[in-house]
Amino acid sequence: MLSRVAERLYWTARYLERAENTARLVRVFSSMMLDLPNGVGLNWRQLVDVSGAPERFDRHYRSSGERNVTRFMLSDTDTQGSVISSLAMARENIRTTRDLVPSEGWEHVNELYLFARKKLTGKTPLKDRHEFLSEIVMRCQQITGLLAGTMSHGPAYQFVRVGRNLERADMTTRMIDVGSATLIAPGVELERLENRLWTYVLRSLSAHQMYRQYVRRRIQPDQVLSFLLQDMIFPRAVAHTLGEITSCFEKYLPHSEEPLRAVLRLQRLIAEADAEKLRAAGLHDFVDQLQLEFGNLHQLISSTWFSLELDEAV
C-alpha cells in the first residue's frame, strides 16, 4: 500500500469521527444552554474555546452569539473542523481510495455529505438542529460499523482504526472539558450543578447507560471522570482508544517504534491520573496536556508512514 493511500484512509476516519463528535458537542451544548439556569455563566463563545479554534473564529466573525457559533461549527466551509468541511474532506479522501474500501462505504459517505450540504447550505436557517445533529451522529456510526464489518482488517483498515481512535480520544477529552468548572461563572454553587454537567457529558458520548451498568453508582463527578479517562472496555474512554491504537502499532503496522513509545507514554499518563485531584484543581490543564500529546502522536504517525520523500509502500 502506498504511503499516500495510507494517509488518505487515516484522514477519512479522522474526518468522519470529527464530523460525528462535532455534532455531539454542539448537541450537548445546545441542551445545556436550554436547561441550565441563566446565572451559571454559560455562553456560546465557550463552545468555540472547547473546540480548540478560537483564533480561527475571531478571524471570520465579529460576535460570538448562537447564530455565528453554530454556523462556524456546522456549516462554515472555510472552517476545517466544521461538520460540512469534515464530511467534504472525508468524501474526497474515500473517493480517491475506493479500490481499498467497500463500495458501500463510498456510497454512504457520499450520501451523508449530500444530505448535510442540502441541510446546511440552503437559504433557510436550520430549524430542526437537534434532529439534524442526531442524524449526522447516527449516519457516521453506520459508516464506522460498515467499514468494521465489511473491510478486510489488513494494513489499510488499521490506518482507518488508528485515525478513528486518535480523533475519538481527542474529542472525548474536549467533552470532559465541558464538564470542568471552567465553564461556570465564579461564585456559582458548583455542588448543585456538577452532577447535571457530568450527566450531559456522559450523554454526549452515549456513555450514560454504560456508566450506570458498570460503575453501578449514581452520577458522581470523580467516578465519571475516571470512567471516561481510564475504563478499558468502553469504546469512547480515552484508555480504550489508546489501547486500540497500541494494538494497531504492535500487531499490524511496521516501523512503529517511535509512535508506539508515544502512545505508551500517553497510556501511563492516563493510568496514573487521579480523578479526584484533577477535578479539584487542574483538570483543564490536564486536558490541554493530553491534547498536546495527541498532536505529537499525530506528527509521529505522519513522519513514520506518510511524510516519505518518495511515495513508498507501507
Concise summary:
The chain has 314 residues and is an all-alpha fold. It contains 15 helices and no strands. Helix 6 runs antiparallel to helix 7 (129-150) and helix 9 packs parallel to helix 11.
Describe what you observe in this structure.
The protein has 314 residues and is mostly helical. It has one domain (3-306). It is 71% helix and 0% strand. The protein contains 15 helices and no strands. The protein has helices at residues 3-35, 45-51, 54-60, 66-74, 83-95, 103-120, 129-150, 155-179, 191-204, 208-214, 221-230, 238-251, 257-271, 275-280, 283-306. The longest helix has 33 residues, at 3-35.
Q: Could you give the topology of this structure?
A:
Elements: H1 3-35, H2 45-51, H3 54-60, H4 66-74, H5 83-95, H6 103-120, H7 129-150, H8 155-179, H9 191-204, H10 208-214, H11 221-230, H12 238-251, H13 257-271, H14 275-280, H15 283-306
Helix pairs in contact: 1-5, 1-7, 1-8, 1-9, 5-6, 6-7, 8-9, 8-12, 8-15, 9-11, 12-13, 13-15
Please, how many domains?
A: 1
Q: Calculate the terminal CA-CA distance, rounded to whole Å.
A: 5 Å
**Residue share in helix:** over 70%
Uncertain stretches: none
Total count of strands: 0
Q: Structural class, from helix and strand content?
A: mainly alpha
C-alpha Rg (nearest Å): 19 Å
Approximate shape? globular
Q: Give a quick account of the main beta sheet: strands, pairing sense, barrel closure.
A: none
Q: Estimate what percentage of residues fall within beta strands.
A: under 5%
* Mean pLDDT, all residues: 90
Order of helices and strands: HHHHHHHHHHHHHHH
Number of helices: 15
